[in-house]
């Protein structure tokens, strides 16, 4: 298995490149526009062919590289079926399998951070890892105060769906702001301060009281991400 984690420092975003080996077809999850050249370099140097580029949700803090990667490689761009982004060439439904040359991902509808967020489980027959976007972060969870976010749904997605995965399933989020690179479902069940030992009601009121400032790039990013990563003219 070939697995690469990239980091974009401005928005603290993680991007994941997966293939079953060198010379094979590859997929990428949550790529950032400013880093597109770096992904393409890795893809060339590892002798991969990029065939799928996935966004877990419409990001508010950075511009997606989906459009640029599709232009550069002809890859298919994918989001969950509730996405309103224009540049999606294929949508996935809850439970649907995505197969790329020996790599299998299962789409899981996990709203809460946004109303169109999906997570992706690697090798769902015996789950090895889950890419959670922003719904579940390491020792945290994604804000629920815009883009159709909802703390009740966030709790449900995390506790009733993601926490049902085996404890040893590795957790790879779309962001980390403190330097954590990977966790596991078992670790988050036990140590995530927003969730461990809390009730649904406590979680919901905690999320409602966060009062976070809007992300720096929000106005540009959301509209650009609905338009293939190209800033809108009007
Ligand atoms: Fe997000």
Describe this structure in words.
The protein has 234 residues and is α/β, with parallel strands linked by helices. It has a single domain (2-233), classed as Metallo-beta-lactamase, Chain A (4-Layer Sandwich), CATH 3.60.15.10. Helices cover 23% and strands 27% of the residues. It has 6 helices and 14 strands. The strands form 3 sheets. Strands 1-2-3-4-5-6 form a 6-stranded mixed β-sheet. Strands 7-8-9-10-13-14 form a 6-stranded mixed β-sheet. A two-stranded antiparallel ribbon has the order 11-12. The radius of gyration is 17 Å and the shape is globular. The relative contact order is 0.15. The mean pLDDT is 95. It binds fe (iii) ion. Residues 57, 59-60, 113, 134, 142 line the site of fe (iii) ion. The site of fe (iii) ion (FE) has 6 residues, from loops.
Give a quick precis of the structure.
The chain has 6 helices and 14 strands. By secondary structure, it is an alpha/beta fold.
Major β-sheet strand ordering: 1-2-3-4-5-6
Q: Which bin fits the share of residues in helices?
A: 10-25%
- The SS-based structural class is alpha/beta
- What portion of the residues fall into strands of 2 or more residues? 25-35%
Give the overall shape, derived from the CA principal axes.
globular
Outline the fold blueprint.
Elements: E1 2-8, E2 13-19, E3 25-29, H1 36-45, E4 49-54, H2 66-73, E5 76-80, E6 90-92, E7 97-100, E8 103-109, E9 118-122, E10 129-133, E11 136-137, E12 140-141, H3 151-161, E13 170-173, E14 183-184, H4 185-191, H5 200-208, H6 218-226
Parallel strand pairs: 3-4, 4-5, 5-6, 10-13
Antiparallel strand pairs: 1-2, 2-3, 7-8, 8-9, 9-10, 11-12, 13-14
Bound molecules: fe (iii) ion (FE).
């Amino acid at each position: 298995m070939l697995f690469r984690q990239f980091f974009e420092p401005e928005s603290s975003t993680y991007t994941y490149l997966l293939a079953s080996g060198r010379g094979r077809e590859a997929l990428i999850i949550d790529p950032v526009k400013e880093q597109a050249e770096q992904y393409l370099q890795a893809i060339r140097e590892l002798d991969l062919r990029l065939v799928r580029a996935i966004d877990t949700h419409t990001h508010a803090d950075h511009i997606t590289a989906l459009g640029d990667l599709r232009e550069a490689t002809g890859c298919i761009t994918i989001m969950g079926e509730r996405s309103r982004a224009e540049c999606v060439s294929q949508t996935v439904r809850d439970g649907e399998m995505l197969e790329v040359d020996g790599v299998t991902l299962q789409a899981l509808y996990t709203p809460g951070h946004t109303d169109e967020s999906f997570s992706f489980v690697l090798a769902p027959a015996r789950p090895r890892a889950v890419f959670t976007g922003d719904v579940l972060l390491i020792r945290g969870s994604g804000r629920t105060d815009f883009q159709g976010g909802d703390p009740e749904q966030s709790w449900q997605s995390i506790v009733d769906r993601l926490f049902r995965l085996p404890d040893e399933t590795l957790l790879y989020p779309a962001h980390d702001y403190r330097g954590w690179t990977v966790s596991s479902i078992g670790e988050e069940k036990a140590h995530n301060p927003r969730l461990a030992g809390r009730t649904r009601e406590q979680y919901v009121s905690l999320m409602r009281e966060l009062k976070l400032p809007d992300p720096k790039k929000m106005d540009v990013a959301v509209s650009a991400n609905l338009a293939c990563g190209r800033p809108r003219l009007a």
